[in-house]
Amino acid sequence: MLERLAASFSTENYWELFQLVQNSVLTAAVLGLMGGIIGVFINLRRAGLVVHGIAEISFAGAALFLLMGLDVVLGSTLGAVAAAALIGVLSIRDREVSAVTAVLMPFGMGLGILFLYLYQGRTANKFGLLTGQIVGVDDMQTRTLISVAVLISVILILIWRPLMFSSVDPQLAAARGVHVNLLTIAFMVLLGGAVAMSVQVVGALLVLALLVVPSAAALKVARRPVVVVLLSCGFALFSAVAGIMIAIMGTVPISPYITTISFLIYVVCLLVGRRQRARFAAVTADSMN
Amino acid sequence: MTDPALQLEAAAVGFGARSLWSEVDISLQRGEFLAVLGPNGAGKSTFLKVLLGLQRLTAGTVEVMGRPVRRGSSQVGYIPQHHQLELETPLRARDLVALGLEGHKYGLPWVSRRARRRIDELIEQVGAQDYAQRPVGVLSGGEQQRLRAAQALAGDPGLLLCDEPLHSLDLNHQRAITELIRQQAVDRGAAVVFVTHEINPVIEHVDRVLYFARGAHRVGTVQEVMRSEVLTELYQSPVEVIEHRGRLVVMGEHSEGTHHA
Q: What SUPFAM superfamilies does the entry give (chain A) (predicted)?
């Protein structure tokens, strides 16, 4: 197997090849930045699994639109935003959303598989929805993906303080006049959009690699808000861009590279974070003696 | 004479046909410390919600500093019940205090020089300088509660509401937080409404008590309210209040017996 993998690599005409995919690299970079920002809130609100649920509904939406011959990005966006908003409303009512997510997840997946089965077109398109297809995005889609990702990032920065306040201490935030419930819905809609965009890069199954893993890694090593966001964005951007740049040398799809790189970053951060904490504990113990 | 910090007249709250409490009249001057006591479900938290503007009265009026209650008013500071913040919360102690000051504002999350100065002041007021730069998640319950006090004091409130702020803190921290609240609020001329299960940790600071039980209530000084015959009448079942070295023990046949007061 390793030989097959090694044989599939070639660095010949690398830069010519790179120019063909530079749209994809740019898109992946912008999506990485967005993922880095929204990921901080996903981790803070413990919504990691919810993201996975939304991704699968998003997959169903995309598969349906593919089957009907409509725009796949639009289909996955509609599916993701609808699922996210529904979960948001339910979470406001009783805060226990994991069961709802668990119910929606297989349903979405099943529908998606049905739509793909009925679809008669290229099988590459089919597989792409689940595991990523960014190398194939056209100019039009590139523009859509980048604009939506930038829009989501800008909105997140503008609502940063109230959203952070209501994520950390909803009770106090409500008392201070923050519209906590409205922000929850707004956040979920943004999350739906972010998931739908990321599905185009890494596919429905691997969205967590772009939206959750980078910020989870950043949170292991940093606590200062600005540093957490910068690191998280940096990690996401690096995994996405490096993943594509390695992938074009061979025939293996890009997703395994992206997920592996982001996983390795997480492991390194986990170890660094442990050392930091151990050193910190030693310092505190010293000062108490 | 200035307006009272808090004034309720014939105030009542009910849900549907059920009345939670009614005919509450109370006027709290700046610098006064009111303890709100009573068993769970008697309406203590609802009382706080009314003062925060999160719950409407079904009858009567409520005014803070001479104005009708408004949600999110900077005249009202609020220290919620202690809950441990997540270890990985991406905030330092001073960032948490900053949320108390500007967390409700939309727009670029830029902290102005003036805000930074104010945050330094608040941190100093609550004695949190030593850990101002530390991540909030690693701080102890007492340290986190000090930061919540700093958040509550951010708007320089005329009325400070505390919802069982000592809950799950050890005795030392209980004393420190209580002292802090008294110092920062009462000495600066703010009134304090302190909801608690236990009157003893705050008993030396309490000017008046508002005691809710079974849809009724009593207002008065500790000596006036915390008496066997008064609480017996309020609970409509025998209750005995025993004083021991300045501490009060309330015993009754009802299930919550010795928990409160």
A: ABC transporter involved in vitamin B12 uptake, BtuC
Give the architecture (CATH level 2) of B6-259. 3-Layer(aba) Sandwich (3.40)
Q: Which residue of chain A comes nearest to B134, CA vs CA?
A: A223
Closest residue on chain B to A172 (Cα): B80
**Residue B110 near chain A (CB below 8 Å):** no
Task: Give the model confidence (pLDDT) of A102-142 as tens digits.
Answer: 888 888 889 998 998 888 876 666 667 777 765 566 777 88
pLDDT for B183 equals: 83
pLDDT digits (tens, 9 = 90+) for B52-105: 999 999 999 999 998 999 888 888 999 988 888 988 899 999 999 999 999 999
> What number of CA atoms fall less than 13 Å from residue A7's CA on the CB side?
4
Tell whether B116 lies on the interface with A, counting CB pairs under 8 A. no
B38 touches chain A (CB under 8 A): no
Cβ contacts (< 8 Å) between A222 and chain B: which residues? Answer: 90
CA angle A270, A56, A195 (to 5 degrees): 60
* Residue A95 and residue A50 in contact, taking contact as beta carbons nearer than 8 Å: no
Model confidence at B169, pLDDT cuts 50, 70, 90, reads: confident
Domain boundaries, given as residue ranges, for chain B: 6-259
pLDDT in tens, B14-34: 888 888 899 999 999 998 999
What is residue B57's three-state secondary structure? coil
Chain A touched by B140 (CB under 8 Å):
no
Residue B142's pLDDT band, with cuts at 50, 70 and 90, is: confident
User: Cβ of B91 under 8 Å from any chain A Cβ?
Assistant: yes
Rounded Cα–Cα distance for residues B47 and B69 (Å):
12
Domains of chain A plus CATH, in order, are 16-207 (1.10.3470.10)
Across chain A, the runs of DSSP E, i.e. the strands, are none
Most A CBs within 10 Å, among B49, B85, B102, B104, to test the A interface: B104
pLDDT at A66 over 90: no
Helix ranges (H only) for chain A are 2-7, 14-20, 22-44, 48-67, 72-94, 98-118, 123-131, 139-158, 160-168, 170-175, 180-202, 208-211, 213-221, 225-247, 254-288
Collect all residues of chain A within an 8 Å Cβ-Cβ radius of residue B92. Answer: 223-224
